[in-house]
């Protein structure tokens, strides 16, 4: 798997592995920082995994290419296990 930060998710059933990719503090064409911390709450309960993501914005203006490559959100997700 390549190094990625695009708010994605891969579930590999052969090994029962869940991989979440989350946005970083970006260092690409100079430092671009998020205004607030970005994180998610993960809950495992009764055969269900729930992810409650958060969103933020960039602290300063950034090029559109950076915005597309490095989103400012961790999406909500629900998986039945």
Helicity level, as a percent range?
under 10%
Low-pLDDT residue spans: none
What's the number of extended β-strand segments?
7
What does the oligomeric state look like here? single chain
Rg from Cα: 14 Å
Tell me the overall shape: elongated
Structure description:
This protein is mainly β. Helix content is 7%, strand content 35%. The chain contains 1 helix and 7 strands. The chain has one helix at residues 64-69, and strands at 9-12, 17-20, 26-27, 31-32, 40-45, 48-53, 77-80. It has a 3-stranded antiparallel sheet with strand order 5-6-7, with no helix packed on it. A two-stranded antiparallel sheet has the order 1-2. Strand 5 (40-45) and strand 6 (48-53) form a beta hairpin. It is elongated.
Layout of SSEs?
Elements: E1 9-12, E2 17-20, E3 26-27, E4 31-32, E5 40-45, E6 48-53, H1 64-69, E7 77-80
Antiparallel strand pairs: 1-2, 3-4, 5-6, 6-7
